[in-house]
Write a structure and sequence with these properties.
The complex is a heterodimer of chains A (about 230) and B (about 400). With about 230 residues, chain A is α/β, with parallel strands linked by helices. Chain A has 7 helices and 10 strands. A 6-stranded mixed beta sheet of chain A has the order 6-7-8-3-9-10, sandwiched between helices. In chain A, strands 2-1-4-5 form a 4-stranded antiparallel beta sheet, with helices on one face. In chain A, a hairpin with a 2-residue loop joins strand 9 and strand 10. Chain B is built from 12 helices and 12 strands. A 6-stranded mixed barrel of chain B has the order 2-3-10-5-7-6. In chain B, strands 8-9 form a two-stranded antiparallel ribbon. In chain B, about 55% of the residues lie in helices and about 20% in strands. In chain B, helix 1 (about 5-15) packs across helix 10 (about 320-355) and helix 10 packs antiparallel against helix 11. In chain B, strand 6 (about 175-180) and strand 7 (about 180-190) form a beta hairpin. Chain B starts with a helix and ends with a helix. Chain B has helices at about 5-15, 20-55, 85-90, 130-135, 160-165, 210-215, 235-250, 260-305, 305-315, 320-355, 365-390, 395-400; strands at about 60-65, 100-115, 115-125, 140, 155-160, 175-180, 180-190, 195, 200, 205-210, 225-230, 255-260. Classes of the chains: A alpha/beta (about 230), B alpha+beta (about 400). The interface between A and B is medium-sized, with 31 and 27 residues. The structure holds adenosine-5'-diphosphate (ADP) and magnesium ion (MG).
């Protein structure tokens, strides 16, 4: 469902050019579980942003569900993000003034769903992620693990096809980290494609397919054909 | 996104940062407050003056010596007087069927004394007609007796202030006083009904017009006040005044006839222009408020980069981000404008309670103007920050670098 071919991403930093991605070719089947590892600055986040339509390649092609993304306008891309992609970040990115329930509701509200349906879906998600007793707490009243669970609930409330997680455990202690990975793997088992960037080799090894990146290149791909 | 959700989201974003929002509200409230207050005061002043004019009577025309270049305009400020208006000119006007009454007027100031006291008063030479024309009221005694205007008499009618300055609490009626070297008997005292169009009736002393002419040693008149038979007769009265005087002045058009309408219209224009001018000055404070809004919203956009990136990651298109920030600016502007309206309303209530005579009231359209200007300002100055938010690169906004 994800087809990247010969993708390049070059950032202009002052006078010099930074090649964040060099000739990246990657095909991901629906329902797959990928981990992306590599040293800091190797282009992992940039790759994830491209797949999540938060950034555009400078060259190469990218197809999502057999649709060439380059041909879509801004609002069509936004629609794809809204409907097909769920992001999970290292720093959670919860809106501080909104409660846990309201943070989870945000994508439904942006999509313009009616109130009753929103309420019902949020309640179900809170129950599924063990957050029911935290519904009216603000992010600063939650533990790191709880915050990331809220973020995952928000990322999946629209039932996306793909979850993109950028170091989702990077800011959590071991126990909370494992809990979060369990949740993500569980979602993958339910059919969502999971692509996860991680620093932790132990967590990386759990993925069905493992990708190693160095200096903007895919150095090693355990699931590459041939 | 539903409109109600949009509203809720922006209002919560606006209230999340109290200090910032209060600052914005204050700026907007002050701007709106001053616009409404100044418009209302200007409008009240206009109405007050109009009211004063109306109390003079609406059928009046005033004939001045000298010709004004622009017809229908305001009276000449420095009109040269090629030919004087005389008492005979004034009496000739009564021939016109459109004219009900005339009152020739001579004016000048002179020392008035009741030994040992002496005051400089405005001496008005007039006839009995002045009483009805100017809606005067008597405190004591009676006004000048009707009779032949060419025959004078040693009688006078005192304004209330002149009476108390010269006689104090003593009886003035029937007493004698001196104007210049001549002796006059007081036959009446005007009641103290304030100011009429800047002329303080209290400081005036009225004597027969012929006597005033010999007192000031002149044959000419200061003006002639003419009362038309009806408001509809005013144009006819004006025409006949012009033709009668022209015939008497060897074919020269050397007078100016002012109708109340023309004066009223001129004052109306002047006051409206003044009100607009002060409102324009006050509107500058709204622009200042707008610039503040822009600044504060720009800071908000840069503080909330993470949130904006997140909204984009969740699938909000540019247009929606733009709408979120615009409605936040609009909401703050509107709230500020509402506060300004309330403040202005309260101040006007207070002023009108303190000065009931001046008919101070809220100009009915001023809140509409002020609020729509405030809203427009908020949105116009909110566009730049909102566009900046909408254009933010989400990948960059989400990474903490
Ligand atoms: N918006 C940007 N502007 C300039 N340089 C960038 C930008 N985003 C990423 N980079 C650079 O691209 C390279 C890859 O970054 P990134 O994908 O964030 O690496 P990783 O997530 O693997 O640590 C780094 O050298 C980084 O400095
Ligand atoms: Mg990274």
């Amino acid at each position: 469902m994800i087809h990247l071919a010969n993708v390049e991403r070059v950032f202009q930093v002052g006078e010099s050019e930074v090649h964040a991605l060099r000739h990246v070719t990657l095909h991901v089947a629906a329902g797959d579980y990928l981990s992306i590892m590599g040293p800091s600055g190797s282009g992992k986040s940039t790759l994830l942003h491209l797949i999540g339509l938060l950034d555009q390649p400078d060259s190469g092609t990218f197809e999502l569900d057999a649709v060439a993304v380059a041909g879509l306008d801004e609002s069509q891309q936004a629609r794809l993000r809204r409907e097909k992609i769920g992001f999970v970040f290292q720093f959670f990115h919860l809106v501080p003034r909104l409660t846990a329930a309201e943070n989870i509701e945000l994508p439904l509200m942006l999509a313009g769903l009616d109130l009753a349906e929103r309420r019902q879906r949020v309640d179900a998600a809170m129950a599924a992620f063990g957050l029911s007793d935290r519904a009216h707490h603000r992010p600063d009243q939650l533990s790191g693990g709880q915050r990331q669970r809220v973020a995952i609930a928000r990322a999946t409330i629209m039932r996306p096809a793909v979850i993109l997680a950028d170091e989702p455990t990077g800011n959590l202690d071991r126990a909370a980290g494992h809990e979060v990975i369990d949740i993500l793997e569980n979602l993958n088992r339910q059919g969502m494609t999971l692509i996860m960037v991680t620093h932790d080799p132990e967590l990386g090894q759990r993925a069905r397919r493992r990708i190693q990146m160095i200096d903007g290149r895919i150095e090693n791909d355990s699931g590459a054909p041939g | 996104m539903r409109p109600l959700d949009l509203l809720m989201f922006s209002s919560r974003a606006a209230t999340a940062n109290r200090g910032r929002s209060l600052l914005m509200l204050l700026a907007m409230a002050i701007g709106v407050f001053s616009v409404i207050l100044l418009i209302s005061l200007g409008e009240s002043a206009r109405l007050y003056v109009m009211d004063q004019f109306a109390s003079l009577g609406t059928n009046l025309l005033i004939v001045l010596p000298g010709r004004s270049e622009t017809t229908g305009g305001p009276p000449p400020l420095l009109g040269e007087t090629p030919r004087d208006l005389t008492l005979e000119d004034a009496l000739a006007l009564t021939r016109s069927p459109a004219i009900r009454a005339i009152c020739p007027i001579v004016a000048g100031s002179a020392p008035v004394s009741v030994p040992p006291l002496e005051r400089e008063l405005m001496v008005i030479g007039a006839t009995a007609e002045l009483y009805a024309m100017r809606h005067l009221t008597m405190g004591q005694g009676s006004f000048l007796p009707p009779g032949d205007p060419t025959r004078g008499g040693a009688v006078c009618v005192l304004g209330a202030k002149g009476k108390s300055e010269l006689f104090g609490n003593r009886q003035a009626l029937g007493q004698w006083l001196r104007i210049g070297q001549r002796r006059f008997r007081v036959i009446g005292v005007l009641s103290s009904t304030g100011v009429s169009l800047g002329e303080d009736l209290g400081e005036m002393i009225v004597i027969p017009v012929a006597t005033a002419q010999s007192l000031f040693n002149t044959d000419s008149l200061f003006r002639i006040v003419v009362e038309a038979t009806a408001p509809e007769a005013i144009p006819r009265a004006k025409d006949s005044i012009l033709s009668i005087i022209k015939a008497r002045h060897e074919g020269e058009d050397d007078i100016t006839v002012i109708t109340q309408d023309a004066v009223l219209a001129t004052f109306d224009r002047i006051f409206k222009a003044l009100t607009l001018a002060v409102a324009g000055v006050a509107a500058i404070s709204l622009v200042v408020a707008g610039i503040m809004i822009m600044n504060i919203m720009l800071v908000a956009v840069s503080n909330r980069r993470g949130e904006i990136g997140l909204l984009k990651a969740l699938g909000a298109p540019r247009q929606q981000i733009m709408r979120l920030f615009l409605s936040e600016a609009a909401l703050l502007s509107l709230t500020g404008a509402a506060a300004g309206c309330l403040l202005a309303y309260a101040s006007i209530r207070m002023l009108s309670a303190l000065y009931p005579a001046y008919l101070i009231g809220l100009a009915p359209w001023s809140p509409v103007i002020a609020v729509s200007v405030a809203l427009t300002t908020g949105i116009v100055f909110g566009v730049l920050p909102a566009r900046r938010a909408a254009k933010l690169e989400p990948a960059l906004a989400l990474s903490r670098r």
